[in-house]
Amino acid sequence: MSTTTKFTARTKSPFRYDIVGSFLRPTELKDARAKFTAGNITQAELTAVEDQEIIKLIKKEEAAGLKAVTDGEFRRSWWHLDFFWGLTGVAFKKPEHGYFFHGEETRQGTVTVTGKISGENHPFVAAFKFTQAHVSAGVQVKQTIPAPAQLLVELLSPNNIAEARKFYPNTADLFQAVSAAYHQVILDLYDAGARTIQLDDCTWGMLVSKTSEKFINSFGEGEAETLDELKALYLKVNNDAIADLPADLTINTHICRGNYHSTWAAAGGYDTVATPLFDQENVNAYYLEYDSDRSGGFEPLKALTAGKYVVLGLLTSKDGKLEDRQVIIDRIHEAAQYVPLDHLCLSTQCGFASTEEGNILTEADQWAKIALVKSIAEEVWG
């Protein structure tokens, strides 16, 4: 790369060095949540600890040089379920089994439909306002939420579909309700000051797996009898949710293959989902897992619509071992064969704690990873 190469200055997400969103929960927060679960402290007392730890985290993120920070998802137990439970008409349900990851089963948790679904008064809006109120001038807040398609997968799983059918006999009506509920939450977040929203999405990550067949026909009524039809459904519910939003609101997405206690759920390259994901989903940028050979190569990125960005998740968040600096730099330039270098950024492949259990690394490891991301990005892009 020529030393005279000029790159566009990033003033909005994604930034050249970036994060996905979740952080390891500090001991104080874990202890408080355990006490709350046991009935030994009140919700107000738990919230006070969450507030305190989120403020500490924000200052650490700022000190690390991050341009867009999150609350670390410190108010959540799960990266996705807590958002679902915040919607009207969706509630907690304890299933017989958790999710099955490679070599590990998660704890149990899912959703049930208790009425018509809507997005008014979602608790994530108040959570965003708190984070926004505690960042320094010039620092942005990125709000992460699970993708609409992720909720559909949960609602229409074999364990939950009967409850959904009580209120939505017609699947198309359920699709419309989910998209509308999301649209409402997103607009409320915008009104609260959010200008960057990230849709975290394991649906595409699971479709690349050889086990994707299990999702076919889970929708019933012949809605998705082939993989292409299922991709079309995911695309529609996501795009409908983010249609007709304010022009200054940035919508990005993170595609994941599972991140629980340093384990993973799926393996496979992006080849089978590049279309319609990279060329038809109406987002600004894709945060993509590329930390292992489970993610395949960079060639599928050639499907990317011109003008979109890719955040290369080349450093793993699943362990604390620091990657070889030159290997990462070389891989960035390899990806630049398919996406202009000016439209690439760098991050870890996922968050550090998609659930409150967290991945198997230390807080020091976590910040060392972020420091390495920043250092490499500054070398590559200046």
TrEMBL record:
Q: Which Gene3D superfamilies match?
A: 3.20.20.210
What GO biological process, any one, is recorded here? methylation
Q: Check the record and name the InterPro entries matching this protein.
A: Met_Synth_C/arc, UROD/MetE-like_sf
EC number(s) per UniProt? 2.1.1.14
List the SUPFAM superfamilies hit by this protein, alphabetically.
Answer: UROD/MetE-like (SSF51726)
Q: Which domain of life is it from?
A: Bacteria
The Gene Ontology terms for molecular function here are: 5-methyltetrahydropteroyltriglutamate-homocysteine S-methyltransferase activity
Instruction: Write out the entry's keywords from A to Z.
Output: Methyltransferase, Transferase
The segment(s) forming the Cobalamin-independent methionine synthase MetE C-terminal/archaeal domain are 20-357
PANTHER family in alphabetical order: METHIONINE SYNTHASE
State the name under which the record lists this protein.
5-methyltetrahydropteroyltriglutamate--homocysteine S-methyltransferase
Q: What is the lineage of its organism?
A: Bacteria, Bacillati, Bacillota, Bacilli, Lactobacillales
